[in-house]
Amino acid sequence: MMAKILIVDDAAFMRMMLKDILTKGGHDVVGEAENGLVAIQKYQELKPDIVTMDITMPEMEGVEAVKEIRKKDANAKIVMCSAMGQQGMVVQAIQAGAKDFIVKPFQGDRVLDAIRRAI
After folding, report:
1. Strand partners of residue 54
2. φ and ψ at 70, to 5 degrees?
3. Helix ranges restricted to H, the chain
4. Are 80 and 61 in contact (CB under 8 A)?
5. Residue 104 · residue 112 · CB < 8 Å
6. pLDDT digits (tens, 9 = 90+) for 58-107
7. DSSP letters along 8-40, please?
8. What residue ranges are annotated as transmembrane (predicted)?
9. DSSP 3-state assignment of 68?
10. For residue 43, is pLDDT > 80?
């Protein structure tokens, strides 16, 4: 099933890598955001099926953004993206309502599996 996806990451390179994996996997990347504040606005505007959310970002961290998005939409499907060694943050993100997490550097199969499970 094709999903409309919003990619949230402060690193343009990471957004580009994810977009490449997702579009090759048959999904539609409907938008990108560089921090949690922008992510909340774009989520309301674009109404994506799924959000990939980085944890560590300027302006507003990923876990805070997850909480804010879930306040507005309890059914929001969010998959966290974390670098190695952020396990504590991942646990917080799951408690905040994230459906799954993927670890950087991204592996195409794992990204697509997480998206499939979140749908």
Report:
1. 81
2. -70, -25
3. 12-24, 36-46, 62-72, 87-96, 108-118
4. no
5. no
6. 999 999 999 999 999 999 999 999 886 667 888 888 999 999 999 888 89
7. E-S-HHHHHHHHHHHHHTT-EEEEEESSHHHHH
8. none
9. helix
10. yes
pLDDT bin (cut points 50, 70, 90) of residue 50 is: very high
Amino acid letter, 17: M
What is the reported pLDDT for 90?
A: 80
Q: Which residue has the tokens 């306040």?
A: 71
| Interhelix angle 62-72/87-96, nearest 10 degrees | 10
Residue 85: predicted pLDDT? 67
Structure tokens at 108: 């195409």
Q: CA 105, CA 82: separation in Å to the nearest integer?
A: 9
Is residue 60 a contact partner of residue 96, using CB atoms and an 8 Å limit? Answer: no
